[in-house]
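Comment thread on ticket #2218

A.B. wrote:
> Attaching the input chain for the structure job we discussed in standup.
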Amino acid sequence: MAFGITFEWKYGKLLLSIFRIGMVVALIWYLRMLIAARVPSGFLYSVGLITAGALGNIIDSAFYGLIFTESPYHDCVPARLVPPGQGYGAFLHGKVVDMFYFPIVWLRMPKWLPFIGGEEWLFFSPIFNVADASITIGVFAILLFQRRFFREEVLDKQEDSSPQETSSETDQKATESGQAPPPGDEQLQKGLSDD
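C.D. wrote:
> Ran it. Output below, let me know if you need it in another format.
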């Protein structure tokens, strides 16, 4: 979960932390496979950004609640560093630190729009951190450049796996075109034994 979205459930934070850990383990394994397969570097960097962002959010949720006091959203009271274990949460129950907020413009929605007609709406209201931005940039890079990433990979595999024509394929093509097939090993050996 990113951009300040939370689970309003007692074990939601623990479930999210365990999910993040599982995803980071899977992404690290996937990165090792990508490196071994020599995929395009842009794709590798994109998956690396996603992995680094997820790892950063895990570190926040694991330790932030243990060593800081709580700091609610849009409250100007900053969190204070406290001795370990005196924070607001337990291990893996901490909140991820979101520090960036760039509201762009308030818009009044037309009255004819269902559900939000006539209301004011803040364009780009998420609160996020560097890890969220890293994950988002990695995902968007994959979506925007997927044709380039995977086309290069497919072309490389086609060049590596294109086998040389066998002599039987060459003989068959020559027969279909009405030409005499080039002498094969058997014909060559027969010709040499006749001499």
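A.B. wrote:
> Thanks. Noting for the ticket: The first strand starts at residue 100 and ends at 101.
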